[in-house]
Amino acid sequence: MDSPEENPKPSAEGVSSDASTKMEVPAATPPAARVAGGAAKASSTPTAAVAKGIPKPVAAKATGAVLESTPDAPINKMRRRIVWYSITGFLMTCFLMFVRFFLPRTIFEPASIFRIGFPSDYGIGVDTKWQQQYRIWVDKTSDRLFVIYARCTHLGCTPDWRSSENKFKCPCHGSGYDSEGVNFEGPAPRPMDRAEVKLDAEGQIVVNIGKLYKSPKGEKSEFNDEGSYIPL
Ligand code: FES
């Protein structure tokens, strides 16, 4: 049988093909150390470790860690999940905003035409029961019924009805109106407007606050126009 000294192995088996860096690996070298020797070509650190006299098994173990792929640590998996969840959430939000853009936005406003019962439901004087819902007062006199739109003609505040003083008083700048909504003090330029009123087939009062009757100072009053009141 030939000894390693007599029949040297081909260069690929453990001897560098470069003559200047020839290095023989003894036949007795353990396989792990051979692998380590191969890795040493790729990295200088293990070579240095071998050169410094670190025991061969230890060096092989260190280079083996480089050759084998390590499984992902749980913390990395968690980080990846958080990133994916964040991206997915962001994209979903963008998509929903995109879809919302095509849906109509509805503004719910009270109807401008509505029924408020029969004339006999009201007594003489000012009735405030529809103020909150429709912003009106029902005003009944001996010969007519009309509806005052509860908006100050100065800058649009809603006046208060003061039954003890028998007048409307605007809280904003102090305008005063009598029980029929005619201004007599403060900066209000004219009486409060009146809404259109009609009787339907059943005899109920139908109010339309989309149509207002005015009485501007120095101009013809609309308070006697048809539709501005219901004769009694
Ligand atoms: S808004 Fe009524 S007095 Fe100014």
Question: Your description of this structure?
Answer:
The chain has 232 residues and is an alpha+beta fold. The chain has two domains: 12-63, no CATH class; 113-231, Rieske Iron-sulfur Protein (3-layer Sandwich), CATH 2.102.10. Helix content is 28%, strand content 20%. It has five helices and eleven strands. The protein has helices at 31-42, 44-51, 56-67, 74-101, 131-134, and strands spanning 113-115, 125-127, 136-140, 144-149, 160-162, 167-169, 176-178, 183-185, 194-199, 205-213, 230-231. The strands form two sheets. Strands 1, 2, 3, 4, 9, 10 and 11 form a seven-stranded antiparallel beta sheet that branches. Strands 5-6-7-8 form a four-stranded antiparallel beta sheet, with no helix packed on it. The longest helix has 28 residues, at 74-101. It is elongated and about 105 Å long. The model is unreliable at 1-62 (pLDDT under 50). The structure holds FE2/S2 (inorganic) cluster (FES). FE2/S2 (inorganic) cluster (FES) is lined by residues 152, 154-157, 170, 172-175, 186-188.
Rg calc = 49 Å
Low-confidence stretches: 1-62
Helix content range: 25-40%
Q: Could you give a short account of the major beta sheet?
A: 7 strands, antiparallel
Task: Give the SSE layout.
Blueprint: H1 31-42, H2 44-51, H3 56-67, H4 74-101, E1 113-115, E2 125-127, H5 131-134, E3 136-140, E4 144-149, E5 160-162, E6 167-169, E7 176-178, E8 183-185, E9 194-199, E10 205-213, E11 230-231
Antiparallel strand pairs: 1-10, 2-3, 3-4, 4-9, 4-11, 5-6, 6-7, 7-8, 9-10
Helix pairs in contact: 1-2, 1-3
Bound molecules: FE2/S2 (inorganic) cluster.
